[in-house]
Specification:
Oligomer: single chain
Largest sheet: 3 strands, parallel
Shape: globular
Distance between the termini: 19 Å
Strand order of the largest sheet: 1-2-3
Number of strands: 3
Length: 168
């Protein structure tokens, strides 16, 4: 469809570099590449930021700049893909990053509920974990199950699509 795609992938083995801060900074920088008018927000939003202020970072780098793109037709707005949300937090067994993770889930839920953000297509991939499913109930999101592992059946259109993709 010719739409710009901004993507970010959480990887549980990259705990030190794959954070909520990194996610919003990647999305903001990529938005600025496509819409240079947003540059001022990137500069202002990155000043005086502390990593414990997830809400302020989201508002200054993402929500406020996206509000200014109100006159851009929906078909020209980027699609934002957050891949492997379930891998946020890495392989650690402690709860030191739980507040940050809950903050991220809260911001994503806010995204799908606020009118001026909802026009941006947000695609989130994840295993069907309960705490994620609770944040994104069917009433505010569309869930698409893609079978994997033993759930993939021969001749299944999903597995055929994946096979065609990998071959190409």
């Amino acid at each position: 469809m010719g739409r710009h795609v901004i993507s970010f992938r959480f990887d549980r083995t990259q705990l030190a570099t794959i954070t909520t801060d990194a996610l919003w900074c990647v999305v903001a920088c990529d938005l600025v590449r496509q819409h240079t008018s947003l540059c001022q927000f990137l500069v202002e939003g990155s000043r005086g930021h502390s990593s414990s202020d997830i809400d302020r970072l989201f508002k200054s780098l993402i929500e406020t700049p996206l509000f200014t793109l109100d006159d851009v037709p929906c078909e020209e707005l980027p699609v934002i893909v957050i891949d492997a949300l379930d891998e946020y937090g890495g392989l650690r067994n402690d709860s030191s990053g739980w507040d940050d993770y809950e903050g991220l889930l809260r911001m994503l839920k806010h995204w799908v509920q606020v009118d001026h953000l909802r026009k941006f297509k947000l695609v989130i991939t994840s295993r069907p974990e309960n705490h994620i499913a609770q944040i994104f109930p069917d009433s505010i999101s569309t869930h698409i199950d893609i079978p994997s592992g033993r759930d993939v059946k021969p001749g299944d259109s999903t597995s055929d699509d994946i096979r065609i993709f990998l071959r190409s």
